[in-house]
Amino acid sequence: MPSLATRSLASLLLTASALPAAAWAQRDCTRTSVGFTPLIDMGASTYQGFDGGLYANGANLPPPAHLAAGVAIGRAIRPLDAAGLPSTDGRVVLVTIGMSNTRNESARLIPMYGSFDNRNPRVTVVNGAQGGQHAGIISNPSASYWSYVDQQLANAGLTREQVQVVWVKQAVAGPNLAFPADAQQLQGYLREIVRIIKDRYPNTRQAFLSSRIYAGYALTTLNPEPYAYQSGFSVKWLIRDQIAGDPGLAFDGPGPVEAPWLAWGAYLWGDGLTPRSDGLIWRCDDFQADGTHPSAQGSDKVANLLIRDWASEPTSRPWFVRCRADMNNDGVTDFNDFLIFLALYNADSHRADANADGVIDFNDLLEYLNAYNAEC
Fold first, then answer.
1. Are 348 and 121 in contact (CB under 8 A)?
2. What is each CA distance from 56 to 168, 267, 276, in whole angstroms?
3. Predicted confidence (pLDDT) per residue in 122-181, tens digit
4. Strand residue runs (E) in the chain
5. Of 143, 181, 196, 211, which Cα lies nearest the Cα of 6?
6. Residue 215 and residue 174 in contact, taking contact as beta carbons nearer than 8 Å
7. What domains, with CATH codes, occur in the chain?
8. What pLDDT, in 10s, does the model give residues 303-318?
9. What is the average per-residue pLDDT within 231-258?
C-alpha cells in the first residue's frame, strides 16, 4: 500500500491541480535549454556513462526479433465485443494511463484522432489518466485509480475485455534520488504498472510508453529537470529488460504471459528552444503557469507526435489507420501515396516491409501495389 507520505503528496497534488494557475505559478521562460541531448539524437554518445537511443546500443529501432513480434501482434489486433471476442461490430480500445500531464494530452488526442483523415472507425481512445495519480500510487494494484479507469471505460460503453492497446506516460512526484537511482525507481514502478494492466485488462496486446516532456521552465519540485529528461532512461531500460527475457515481463512463450508487448510510443522530450533532429522545440507558452503541465498548445504537440508515430509504425499502423495504402494519411489513395512508399522502399526502411517478413524486397512492392489497387 502507498505510504502515508505518498498519500499526503497525492492529496497535495490533487489540491494544487484545482487552484487557479496564478496561485501556484512557478515558471521561468528564460530557461530555454538545459543542455541535454535527446535520446533519439545521442548516437554513440553517453549520459553519465549510459548509452542513449531508445533501444540498446544507441539505436532508435527495436531489435529485429522484437520488432517482428510487435508487427505480428499489431496485425492480429481485431475489434472485440463486450466479452472480448472478435466481432466486426466490436471495438479496438486504446486506453491512456497516467497522471495529469497524460490526462491533458489525452484530452487533445481524442478529438485530434477523431478528425484524422485516415482514422480507423473501429478504434476508440479512452482517457484513463487522472490528475495526481503518479507512478508511485498506481503501481499498487489496489489503488483506487484502477477503478477510475474502469469507470471511464464503462462511461464509454466499453468493457475491460475490449482493451487491446495502452499508452502509458508516468513520472515520480517530487523526485529526489540521484541518477541512475531516480530512473531505476520509475522503471520499477512502470514494471508493476504494465503487469497490473495485463492482469486487469487481459486482452491487452501492446503497451506504448512515453517519458516526460521538457521541464526546464518549471521552478517547482513536482518533476523538474533533470528528472524529466532522465525518465527516458526508465522507459528505455524497462523495454530493454523485456527484450532481454525478463520472465516477469513475458508477452508470449511457453510460460505465463505477464505483460503486453512493450515499445516506445512517441519520444516527447526536447531541449527547450534547441531543435532536436526532427525539429521539435518546447516553447514557454507550450506550458501552463507552473511550467510543468502542458498548455492546450503543448498538449496538441504531444497528440500530433503520438498520431504521427502510431500512423506510421508497422507495429501500430495495421489497427490505427483505415487504409494502409494511404501513406500520407489524407483519406485518399493516389499516386502521392505510391511515391511515399517508393521512397521508403528505396531507403530500405522498416516501414516498407509491406508483407511483414522482416526483409525489404520486391515482394513488398507487389504487396503494396495490391493494396494500392484495391483502394481500401
1. no
2. 21, 15, 20
3. 999 999 999 999 999 999 999 999 999 999 999 999 999 999 999 999 999 999 999 999
4. 46-47, 50-51, 92-98, 123-127, 163-169, 206-210, 261-264
5. 143
6. no
7. 27-320 (3.40.50.1110), 335-374 (no CATH)
8. 999 999 999 999 999 9
9. 97
Grid cell of 167 as nine digits:
499508452
220 closest CA partner among 98, 100, 360, 62: 100
The region of weakest confidence among 14-23, 93-102, 125-134, 292-301 is 14-23
The pLDDT score that the predictor gives to residue 25 is: 59
- Assign 3-class secondary structure to the chain: CCCHHHHHHHHHHHHHHCCCHHHHCCECCCCCCCCCCCHHHCCCCEECCEECCCCHHHCCCCCHHHHHHHHHHHHHCCCECCCCCECCCCEEEEEEEECHHHHHHHHHHHHHHHCCCCECCCEEEEECCCCCCCHHHHCCCCCCHHHHHHHHHHHCCCCHHHEEEEEEECCCCCCCCCCCHHHHHHHHHHHHHHHHHHHHCCCCCEEEEECCCCCCCECCCCCCCCHHHHHHHHHHHHHHHHHCCCHHHCCCCCCCCCCCEEEECCCCCCCCCCCCCCCCCCCHHHECCCCCCECHHHHHHHHHHHHHHHHHCCCCHHHHECCCCCCCCCCCCCHHHHHHHHHHHHCCCHHHCCCCCCCCCHHHHHHHHHHHHHCC
Distance CA 304, CA 344 (A): 21
SS3 content of the chain, % helix, strand, coil (to 5): 45, 10, 45
Q: Are residues 186 and 231 in contact, defined by beta-carbon separation less than 8 angstroms?
A: yes
Structure letter (DSSP) for residue 260: -
Cell 506504448 found at: 208
Q: Are 215 and 224 in contact (CB under 8 A)?
A: yes
Contact predicate 247/258, CB 8 Å: yes
Burial class from Cβ neighbours inside 10 Å (0-12, 13-18, 19+) for residue 73 reads: buried
Evaluate if residue 322 carries a pLDDT over 90: yes
